[in-house]
Amino acid sequence: MRGKLIILLVLNVLFSGFSVQADSKSSMTELDQLADEALQLTRFGRFEEAKNIMERFGELFSEKGVIERQFTMDELRIVTAAHHEALKALASVGLNTNERVKKVTAFRLATDAIISKYQPLWSEMERPIMNAFEDVKSAALEGDENLYNTELNEFLSTYSVIQPSIKISVPVEKVQRLDSRIAYIDRYRSTFSEQKWMQELEGLEADLKKLFSEINKDDTDPSIWWVMFMTGGIIVSTLSYVSWRKYRGQKLQKQKRKDLND
To answer: Where is the secretion signal located (predicted)?
Structure first.
C-alpha cells in the first residue's frame, strides 16, 4: 500500500509539472501565432488589422513576460523594442510596404527566437544575408564607390531584419564582435583603400558564415536528457522498491507457512 502511495505521489508531481508546461506552451504558441498573423497581414497591405494584432500581442506578452516572468530581462527588452519599431512602421504613412514588412519581419523573427531555442526562423535568412553581402563585395572589387555604397546600404537594411533575433539566440560577445565589424565598415566606408576594403569585408564574411553555421548545428539541449534521465530514474527506483517489498513480503509469508507446517 505504501509503495502504491509513493508511485501516485511521483506521478502526481510529474503530471502537475506537465500541466504547467502545457499551459506555458499554449501561451507561447498563441504569441507565435499572433506575430505570424501580423506579418502575413502586413505583407498583404492590411496595416490596420496588423496593428490590432500587434496590440493584442503586446498585452499578452506583457502578461507572460512581466507578470509571470517567463522571459529574461534581455528578451523582454529586445522583443519590446522590435514590437515598438514594428508598430511605428505600421502607423507611418511615409514608409513603403517593403520597409514595413522588414520591420514586422524583424519583430516576427525576434518573437520566434525567444520561443524556438533551437534552429530559430532567423537562421533561414542565411541566403538573403549572404547574397546581399556578395553584392557588396562585388561592388568593392569593381571599385565603383557609388555602387558600393548602394549595395552596403541594402546589406545593412537586410541585416537589420535579423539583428534583434541574434541578440536573443547568440552569446553577447559574438553579437558585439559582429556589430562592431559592421559599424566600422559603415562608418569608414569612404576612407578605405581597396586593400583595406577587402580585408575588412573578408573578416565580416567569415563572421557571418560562422554565425549561421553555429546556429544551424543540430544540438540537443543537455538539460532535456538530464530531465528524462532523472524522471525515468525516479520511476524505475520507485517500482524497484515496490517490487522488492512485494518479493520480501511473499518470502516472509512462505517462511511463516513453512514454520507452521513444521
So the answer is: 1-22
